[in-house]
Amino acid sequence: MSTAILTGQPVPGSSLESDLRSLGFDVRVASDAGDAETLLATVPAGQRVAVVDSRFVGHVHALRLGLTDPRFDAAALPGAVTVQAAARQALTRALAREGSAPAGGSAVAVDNLADRVTAALDADGVTPHRPELGTLVAVVPADPQARNQARQAVAAVDDEAVRLRTAVKSRDGFFTTHFISPYSRYLARWCARRGLTPNQVTTASLITALIAAGCAATGTRGGFVAAGALLILSFVLDCTDGQLARYSLQYSTLGAWLDATFDRAKEYAYYAGLALGAARGGDDVWALALGAMVLQTCRHVVDFSFNEANHDATANTSPTAALSDKLDSVGWTVWIRRMIVLPIGERWAMIAVLTAATTPRITFYALLIGCAFAATYTTAGRVLRSLTRKAQRTDRAARALTDLSDSGPLAHLLRRLARGKGFAPAYLAFVGAAIVLLGTAAAPYGSWWPVLGAVFYAWMSVAALIRPLKGALDWLIPPLFRAAEYGTVLVLAAKADVNGALPAAFGLVAAVAYHHYDTVYRIRGDAGAPPHWLVRAIGGHEGRTLLVTVLAALLAPTEFKVALTALAVAVAVLVLFESIRFWVTAHKTGAPAVHDEGEPA
């Protein structure tokens, strides 16, 4: 329950009180600031409180945007201000000052209590969020003529149409924008009117995708066709959950985490389903499935690392970025550039069509080629931007890159012996990753050369620890580490050449990738990195890489498969337990709501 305190004399014929009640507010009326302060004291401390001028005229959706968004401790629009529990004391102080101020004692330009309280919150260091209203109306008319004009302006704009339009993500891929969102927004409204939550729609999307993976695993043409259709339906629901969150402002930390992690779970489970279906037809494509997962995960880590490195950088400009902005001003180039990076809409549409019409092998070949081109395009562009921009990165960005690196106890131990402060960390990481991958690829199974490469890689992994990661290319360190670890597991499992080794490797990489995605979403939610005990328990990227190479050198292929399976289960149990515990606890303890528009990847 939320409480709205209406201030001033009620206006005859106004629907404001009923509008506020429709938004879930318990409405109370105060004659002046002193009366509002008294009423505020009776509202339970954990409730949202809004102060609204009784003369307010505007759209219901303007009030919804200004007064009900859970992501902000304080928010305001003309004639209305709201606070959650975290800003409650600031509101109490503002009303106390207003109540004690002598009538007419000072010349105040603002003639309504809500706006004066908003200014007082600003002065107190609690800056209210002010939503973009666009064509929506939110005003406090000064006289009857202005009120009539405001009411006419309200009648001229359909706020439900605005609400539907703004429920769609402002930046999305071509396929999503033109083939999904035109009708999924109405599905989101249908869900809202029936009391469904975004988390329920997210779960429905996951279940649909898992059923699609099961259909693909049958290995029949009918199963492949059903899988493709269900994958598209899952994507429709995936778009709907975010649109429902924006439509009804149902944002939460748990919801943002579920939406992000379920996207990865759906896609990678579908890869596994395709590989199982191909195996039923006598075609082993597990290496392709694992390669697709490795490539896609590394693409995401590039996105995450680059964005975190430049999240709050100052003087963050470059000629390359300026050229990109110019290209964005030419309409058709925007869509071309969004499509060639193969975002989730285009990617899933391609996978669905190829699954239904061709074979899993062709589907994976197309996926690998498309993702490789997209990764090359985006990474090259970001490297060029980084080399030409003059950005001053912050301690927060350096800390985020260090956390994304996932350095384990071995790297921290070797850090004490490191003497590489004169070398750029990104170059050290590149050399280490190249050595371990080349050594693993060139040596036969059972050789100790990969172990030597992994030892060198572990030594180079101190690149993430020798100094703050504020260099121009230091954002490349996490994706280089991901490529080295995942690629080593893939190559060794393929070289083992025993039935079941690649599926076991797929499971291990999936468990580790989940841990890395979980780290990203914690950082994005300002929750910090996973606890040190978890990183130590699963070894860090360098420890796991070294362990897998040692196991391959010591064990026969069949035993290596069993060891990979056991390692995958152990990592999965630990990271899932800690991740679920953390996010559920954060949700129950009232962590700040999050809604991450993110990249359309």
Question: What features would you describe in this structure?
Answer:
With 601 residues, this protein is mainly alpha-helical. The protein contains 25 helices and seven strands. It has helices at 16-22, 33-41, 60-67, 88-100, 113-123, 144-156, 159-166, 174-193, 198-216, 221-248, 253-280, 286-309, 319-328, 331-340, 344-357, 360-388, 395-405, 409-415, 425-442, 449-460, 477-496, 501-524, 532-537, 540-554, 557-588, and strands spanning 2-7, 25-30, 48-53, 57-58, 74-77, 80-83, 138-139. Strand 1, helix 1 and strand 2 (25-30) form a beta-alpha-beta unit. Helix 24 (540-554) packs antiparallel against helix 25 (557-588). It starts with a strand and ends in a 13-residue tail after the last helix. Mean pLDDT is 91; it is low at 105-109.
Number of strands: 7
Compute the CA-based radius of gyration. Answer: 28 Å
Helix content: 55-70%
State the secondary-structure class.
mainly alpha
Q: Could you list the spans in which at least 5 consecutive residues all have pLDDT below 50?
A: 105-109
Distance between the termini: 37 Å
Strand percentage lies at under 5%
Average pLDDT: 91
User: How many helical elements?
Assistant: 25
**Given the C-alpha coordinates, what overall shape results?**
globular
Strand order of the largest sheet: 2-1-3-6-5
| Largest sheet geometry | 5 strands, mixed
Summarize the structure.
Helices cover 66% and strands 5% of the residues.
Structural key phrases:
601 residues, mainly alpha, five-stranded mixed β-sheet, two-stranded antiparallel ribbon, 7 strands, 5% strand, globular
